[in-house]
Amino acid sequence: MQREQVLLEKAQKRLEEIHKIPALKKGNSITKALRRNGISRRDFMKWAGAMTAMLSLPASFVPLTAKAAEVADRLPVIWLHMAECTGCSESLLRSDGPGIDSLIFDYISLEYHETLMAASGFQAEHNLEAAIEKYKGRYVLMVEGGIPTGLEGQYLTIGAHGKTGWQGTVEASEHAAAIFAIGTCSSFGGIQAANPNPTATKPLSQVINKPVINVPGCPPSEKNIVGNVIHFILFGTLPSLDAFNRPKWAYGLRIHDLCERRGHFDAGEFVQAFGDDGAKDSYCLYKMGCKGPYTFNNCSKLRFNSHTSWPIQAGHGCIGCSEPNFWDTMGPFEEPMANKLYNTPFFGGADRTADNIGITLLGAAAIGIAAHAVLTNIKKDNQ
């Protein structure tokens, strides 16, 4: 209780300080934005409660989470696009209706976002430079996409002054209050960095010298994006991170831990081929290559497509998209990981430091999963 009280007082003090900063969008408020879109105060508070729980905060923080959303317009955001497909932005913006997460992001003062802004050419470049100068030390930098460093960083050269993507990223990060790598490409390099990586693409953390919070996923859930912003507003500090700088509140558990098909795994009931009776009965997809036992994310809790479904629910195994180098280490995507055990990313990976599981135990766990699948199947055949 004492620790909770200290956190409460810290968050209250920070919100009071942020509230003193003039609103960047005059005449607007989150309350007005919600009302315009037919979202009641009751629904907003329900969202605040869900967000509080997702951030692993006590229920006493619900009013403060709501307040953090209300003062989010004091927080300038600069969003850069590097080598990527814009899927992370789409995850945040492409909802069937304006949900509270996307409305809050609309409400935030988004100073630069190449996909959304109307400006181009000199005007766009001026907007970026002016925002960096005006909000120096205050703005949040979000980078989507890996950073190509080949050919002396000449890739992604844009704008009237011909700045490269690498140069623009370094300059924007210099005076940022917080930096988020949005999506697996920015967090770990993504498909651009997959072998043979002809553009020498690197994750954001390897091209700048400041702390980076990784929010991986291909794409990540919009709640993981907005949740990090809310946490920063509340505390102004980095959340608890794992070995790969991922927030533990979002990436602290394996897909396997909370999977809706886990009971079938424990019972030895596996899909043997896509479309078979096991698939129709939602059996475990491990034998079809599901990487859920090796992947850290909260997809099963948040889901996609307006929170209606996610890959495993739809009938395909997890491909491990929130893990480092997953294009190289998790494939082939429809073969069990045990077939290539010693090429996994776990030897020296997140488990080793974040969850205090040693290399030997991890290897034993992976072997055990494979053995479980084989033995239970033999048992069933005998029966």
What name goes with the CATH superfamily of the largest domain?
A: NADH:ubiquinone oxidoreductase-like, 20kDa subunit
Report the C-alpha radius of gyration, rounded. 22 Å
Q: Briefly note the CATH topology name of the largest domain.
A: Rossmann fold
Overall pLDDT score? 85
Determine the strand fraction and express it as a percent band.
5-15%
Quantity of strands, as a count: 7
Secondary-structure element string: HHHHEHHEHEEHHEHEEHHHHHHHHHH
Shape assignment: globular
In CATH terms, what is the architecture of the largest domain? 3-Layer(aba) Sandwich
Reported for the largest beta sheet, the result is:
5 strands, parallel
Helix content: 40-55%
User: Could you say which structural class the secondary elements and strand pairing correspond to?
Assistant: alpha/beta
Tally of contiguous helical segments: 20
Domain NADH:ubiquinone oxidoreductase-like 20kDa subunit: 85-231
Domain Cytochrome-c3 hydrogenase C-terminal: 251-333
Subcellular location: Cell envelope
Subunit structure: Heterodimer of a large and a small subunit.
Overview of this structure, please?
The chain has 383 residues and is of the alpha/beta class. The protein folds into three domains: 1-247, NADH:ubiquinone oxidoreductase-like, 20kDa subunit (Rossmann fold); 255-328, Cytochrome-c3 hydrogenase, C-terminal domain (Cytochrome-c3 Hydrogenase, Chain A, domain 2, Irregular), CATH 4.10.480.10; 350-382. It is 44% helix and 7% strand. It contains 20 helices and seven strands. It has helices at residues 2-20, 30-36, 41-54, 62-70, 87-93, 100-107, 121-134, 150-153, 165-174, 184-188, 222-235, 248-251, 255-258, 262-266, 277-280, 299-302, 311-314, 326-329, 350-354, 359-382, and strands at residues 76-81, 109-113, 140-144, 147-148, 178-182, 201-202, 213-215. The strands form two sheets. A five-stranded parallel beta sheet has the order 2-1-3-5-7, sandwiched between helices. It has a two-stranded antiparallel ribbon with strand order 4-6. Helix 3 (41-54) crosses helix 4 (62-70) and helix 4 (62-70) crosses helix 11 (222-235). It is globular, with a radius of gyration of 22 Å. The model is unreliable at 341-362 (pLDDT under 50).
